[in-house]
Amino acid sequence: MDIVFSDASASFAGQTALHPLSLRLSERRIGIIGLNGSGKTTFARLINGLVRPASGRVTVGGLDTVKDEEAARGRVGFIFQNPQHQMILPVLAEDIAFGLKSRGLARDEISRRTEAVLERFGIGHLATRRVHELSGGENQLAAIASVLVTGPDVLILDEPTNQLDLRNRGLIERTIAALPEQAIVITHDLPLLDRFDRVLLFHLGRLAADTTPAEAVRIYREIAAC
Length: 226
Known about the structure:
- With 226 residues, the chain is α/β, with parallel strands linked by helices.
- It is 34% helix and 27% strand.
- It has seven helices and ten strands.
- Strands 6-7-8-3-9-10 form a six-stranded mixed β-sheet, sandwiched between helices. A four-stranded antiparallel β-sheet has the order 2-1-4-5.
- The longest helix is centred in the middle third of the chain and has 14 residues.
- The protein is globular, with a radius of gyration of 18 Å.
- The chain starts with a strand and ends with a helix.
């Protein structure tokens, strides 16, 4: 699906967080990197309407994130740095079902979809587990399941391997690689990007590079060394 920035910028309290940017994203796996405060998270949040452009426009599958806000947001799922913070209900299956209930689906359909997404990510055995009892890797899988159960076309993940041990990092890396949905990943975990299709590097609120993973990481290391 095409995500299009047309001279889109973002600002907060009169300060520019992201300078005007025009580009089109259509690749299946896209990485976003940069130093803290570089504009990468602002860029990602423009895609699902969590941030509105100060100028220009952003479209997702042809839907304007401002004029068609609700429809555009429904096309994009977002997983925050701490996925547990976006869990609303205490039991995993109940939390996953919550997003479907808000859409007014029948009880049988909610149960079917909830069970299906739990099995899809291999966490069916955790259905009745309390979310605060989940491990770091289980939390990430639970968050992915709770977002994808509503059927978005694009999934944005903010630091999905942050604070995970080697085993759980590998689990999340394989999960992202296997997703049929388009995935946009904000990360400082540079090896995670090795097989991505495209990587965007942000610096000081501007797009500093838009290239292959290896080249983007090379430029990033030069910037970080300054």
